[in-house]
Specification:
globular, about 280 residues, Rossmann fold
Length: about 280
């Protein structure tokens, strides 16, 4: 066995470690964002900034995260409320983060919105709102954080941008009385945006990847789950016979943020148990 092989074997135990990394999670006060933040802290991040529109929700999430018993000594979650759909709030978010760190290693662009309504009455203002938050704000979030993300980024230890897409951007989303035209279009768009960002930012040592969840029981998804026939029907539809769990999304985020995924760039990691392979969601 060569010396190089021995070194690789010796370091494998830390391949998923995020020891000392600094992360920002948008939409981090609940649901997938909160699950991801929990995973990031438990994988070794020293700071995880939680942002969403409501200050009280951010504070509640941070209190729960800081009470985790198995996080890195001294690690902390930090509340920074901001409305990601407003450019001035994105600027303020960056400035607030800069008060307690000089760099960011992981940016999880998770904030999003949806709207369900039949084709004939689908409102223009809601279509615009969904597209602006799910696509436009992701671009400007990444743009504004890029200077902080290049501070410590190297070829061998790149920073990471992770974007929450959806299987609705790959297969057809919900149609009928509660169709999600804007949501499906926005998630297809943000997948393609992520691929463009991967090529643009790769030379700056920032890797960009998307995560495409299927149905996870969350506040945003629970209403649609009910409209689609309920948990049991959706579990039966999935090849692995269950819906997503907190550790599924946390594991995916930690993987993509870790050294284990340091040669993944512009990819879409689907986490839905294979349900999208059976057609419309």
């Amino acid at each position: 066995m060569s010396a190089e092989d021995q070194v690789n074997l010796q370091s494998f135990g830390s391949i998923f470690s995020l020891d000392g990394k600094v992360a920002v999670v948008t939409g981090g006060s609940r649901g997938l964002g909160l699950h991801a933040a929990s995973g990031l802290l438990q994988a070794g991040c020293s700071k995880v900034y939680i942002t969403s529109r409501k200050a009280s929700a951010c504070d509640e999430a941070v209190a729960a995260l800081n009470a985790l018993p198995n996080k890195r000594p001294g690690a902390q979650a930090i509340s920074v409320p901001a409305d990601n759909s407003r450019m001035e709030d994105l600027d303020r978010l960056v400035e607030e983060v800069k008060k307690t760190t000089d760099h960011v290693d992981i940016l999880f662009a998770n904030a999003g919105a949806t709207w369900g309504e039949k084709f004939d009455s689908y409102p223009e203002n809601m279509f615009s709102k969904v597209m602006e938050l799910n696509v436009k704000s992701v671009f400007y979030l990444v743009q504004k954080f890029t200077p902080l993300m290049t501070v410590n980024a190297t070829v061998n230890d790149p920073s990471r941008v992770l974007v929450t897409a959806s299987v609705a951007g790959i297969a057809l989303g919900s149609l009928g009385k509660n169709a999600v035209f804007a949501y499906s279009a926005s998630k297809a768009a943000v997948i393609h945006l992520t691929k463009n960002l991967a090529v643009e930012l790769g030379p700056r040592h920032i890797l960009c990847n998307a995560i495409a969840p299927g149905f996870y029981p969350t506040k945003m998804a629970n209403g649609l789950i009910g409209l689609q026939g309920g948990f049991k029907q959706l579990e039966d539809h999935s090849p692995n016979k269950r819906l997503g769990r907190p550790e599924d999304i946390a594991g995916a985020v930690v993987f993509l943020a870790s050294r284990a995924a340091s040669h993944m760039n512009g990819t879409v990691l689907v986490t839905d148990g294979g349900a999208h392979l059976k057609g419309r969601l």
